[in-house]
Design goal:
The longest helix has 18 residues, at 207-224. Strand 7 and strand 8 (73-80) form a beta hairpin. Helix 4 runs parallel beside helix 5 (243-251). The strands form five sheets. Strands 11, 12, 15, 20, 21 and 22 form a six-stranded parallel β-sheet that branches. Strands 1, 3, 4, 7 and 8 form a five-stranded antiparallel β-sheet that branches. The chain folds into two domains: 24-104, Immunoglobulins (Immunoglobulin-like); 111-372, 7-stranded beta/alpha barrel, CATH 3.20.110.20. Mean pLDDT is 94; it is low at 1-19. It has helices at residues 121-128, 140-152, 177-182, 207-224, 243-251, 276-285, 312-323, 348-361, 369-372, and strands spanning 24-27, 33-34, 40-42, 45-53, 60-62, 65-66, 68-70, 73-80, 84-91, 96-104, 111-119, 156-161, 163-164, 167-168, 187-193, 233-234, 256-259, 287-290, 295-299, 302-303, 327-333, 365-366. The protein has nine helices and 22 strands. By secondary structure, the protein is α/β, with parallel strands linked by helices.
């Protein structure tokens, strides 16, 4: 996306109404996370064009600089010097003031990540074979992921269930803890849910339930793999939660949440507690921070297991043509890897390799969210 996504039909700013209801930021908006393609980098500053909606004849200043009226809106250049930046609007005639906080992501543009949901079966296998395996990468699933990494340098993030039939993370061997730590530069682990079922387990869950389940998983990851593999990013199972549940995730350290943010269609939203307007904004921008809650939301570009192998490249080509995202987040689910799963996909590996190769061929380099949005 070149420049800001603005003028979304029906969009309302993410701040309270006020006496200056006809005066508002068009772009950027509060919580926008900007990169070098949203402006021009000059002397270690990102210079952006701020657009303001206000009646003709208004006296508008932004960060003390008078805005020019053209094409029905007020515009002015602003320099962003820091990660967090406050932009202040003043309409001098009415004395109306408003401010927003936006972010300059210096390490975001042209990065990609590969994440996998619903992980648990590979850990059960490693634990059951701990006397035989000399490395976690003797597990066929992790061996496959290591091949992806070795081939393309890919950074891979695994979101974990706490339990499955006959196994939970408290039973996971810590024999390979040092090996987990040694590979933490490209292999990360985080909380996903207590278990696969029921569907949408946190749709109506309160703060305490989410925090309890999250703490269970984090405690065990730390025990068997070390803090080195942990970070501030995850995808909640089904990506549906009330704001209280997301606050629990935030308080557990997960301040970057990935999802689909589907809107205006019949697909599962996977959009946590966000409003329709907020989902539309993220659908276009791919990244946005809810400043009221201190949570970053990042859109997944493709759920690989939902398309056929020959559709992977055309799908991603269309995403790039339509949105031109500066960060590509690729995702798949673990269970489709296994021949005994009811919906086994024998070309699981080929799909992953194809998607990752597309990212590399299109100029994207490996980068966890924790390295790119904070």
């Amino acid at each position: 996306m070149t420049g800001f996504v603005a003028g979304v039909s029906g969009f309302k700013p993410f701040y309270p109404e006020n006496t200056g209801a006809d005066i508002k930021f068009i772009s950027p908006i509060d919580g926008d996370m900007l990169n070098e393609y949203d402006g021009t980098v000059i002397e270690e500053s990102l210079v952006i064009n701020v657009k303001i909606a206000a009646p003709a004849g208004s006296h508008v200043k932004v960060n003390g600089v008078k805005a020019k009226y053209a094409d029905g809106i007020f515009q002015v250049e602003v320099k962003l010097k820091n990660y967090e930046n406050v932009i202040e609007l003043l309409e001098e005639k009415e004395g109306f003031k408003q401010s927003i906080k936006v972010f300059w992501l210096k390490n975001y543009a042209n990065k990609y990540r590969f994440s996998i949901d619903d992980n648990i079966w590979f850990l059960k296998d490693i634990s059951e074979n701990s006397d035989r395996y000399k490395s976690i990468f003797e597990n066929p699933y992790l061996s496959c992921l290591k091949e992806v990494h070795d081939t393309y340098g890919t950074k891979i993030h695994l979101n974990l269930f706490y339990q499955t039939d006959g196994f939970n993370l408290s039973q996971m061997t810590d024999k390979f803890k040092n090996e987990w730590k040694a590979n933490a530069g490209w292999l990360g682990l985080s909380f996903h849910a207590l278990s696969e079922f029921p569907d949408k387990p946190y749709l109506n869950a309160g703060y305490d339930q989410v925090k309890k389940d999250c703490a269970l998983v984090k405690e065990q990851i730390k025990r068997f793999a070390g803090e080195e593999v942990m970070g501030p990013e995850t995808t909640l199972h089904w990506g549906e939660s009330k704001v209280e549940g997301c606050r629990a995730l935030r308080d557990c350290g997960y301040t970057a949440l990935a999802g689909y943010f589907n809107v205006d269609d019949n697909q599962a939203p996977v959009a946590y507690y966000l409003t329709t307007e907020q989902k539309r904004h993220i659908k276009n921008r791919f990244i946005w921070r809810d400043n009221a809650e201190g949570i970053i939301f990042a859109r997944l570009a493709l759920v690989i297991n939902t398309v056929k192998l020959d559709q992977v490249v055309p799908y991603l080509d269309n995403v790039k043509k339509t949105y031109n995202p500066r960060y590509i987040d690729l995702m798949i689910h673990e269970q489709y890897f296994y021949h005994y799963y009811s919906h086994y996909q024998p070309d699981w590996k080929e799909k992953v390799m194809t998607a990752v190769k597309w990212a590399v061929d299109n100029g994207y380099k490996p980068g966890f969210l924790k390295e790119s949005v904070f």
